[in-house]
Amino acid sequence: EVGADALGLDWTTDLSLARYQIGDKVALQGNMDPCVLYAQPERIKTEVKEILKAYGHGSGHVFNLGHGIHPTINPEHVAALVDAVHAESVQYHQ
């Protein structure tokens, strides 16, 4: 009702609940704890899968970190995040 196109969420917000409450009124952006990028790539991929599953099928989700990236993150872990989002989101956002 305020004219926004998207609502930014941090990682403490239940994405499936936010989607239920907001519906398709605006896009939802965010929802991964930036500290997950300190984990190994396989754990990062698991978190990506969980977030995408929480949003579910359909458009309107902008995958993003909950509040940005820490400067000490290994760039390879960022690449693992991007690769996982590209690979896993296809089944939800066609």
Question: Could you please describe the fold and organization of this structure?
Answer:
With 94 residues, this protein is of the alpha/beta class. Helix content is 40%, strand content 11%. The protein is built from three helices and three strands; from the N terminus they run βαβαβα. The chain has helices at residues 15-22, 41-55, 75-89; strands spanning 6-9, 27-30, 61-62. The chain has a three-stranded parallel sheet with strand order 1-2-3, covered by helices on one side. The protein is globular, with a radius of gyration of 13 Å. It starts with 5 loop residues before the first strand and ends in a 5-residue tail after the last helix. The model has no long low-confidence stretch (mean pLDDT 93).
Structure summarized in a few sentences:
By secondary structure, this protein is an alpha/beta fold. Helices cover 40% and strands 11% of the residues.
Key terms:
94 residues, alpha/beta, 3-stranded parallel beta sheet, 3 strands, 40% helix, 11% strand
Topology:
Blueprint: E1 6-9, H1 15-22, E2 27-30, H2 41-55, E3 61-62, H3 75-89
Parallel strand pairs: 1-2, 2-3
Q: Helix amount, in percent?
A: 40-55%
- Assign an overall shape: globular
- The order of strands across the largest sheet is 1-2-3
Overall structural class, as computed from helix and strand content, comes to alpha/beta
Succession of helices and strands? EHEHEH
Low-confidence stretches: none
Instruction: Give the overall average pLDDT.
Output: 93
For this entry, what is the oligomeric state of its chains?
single chain
Computed Rg:
13 Å
Q: Strand fraction band?
A: 5-15%
Largest sheet: 3 strands, parallel
Query: How many β-strand runs?
Result: 3
Distance N to C terminus: 28 Å
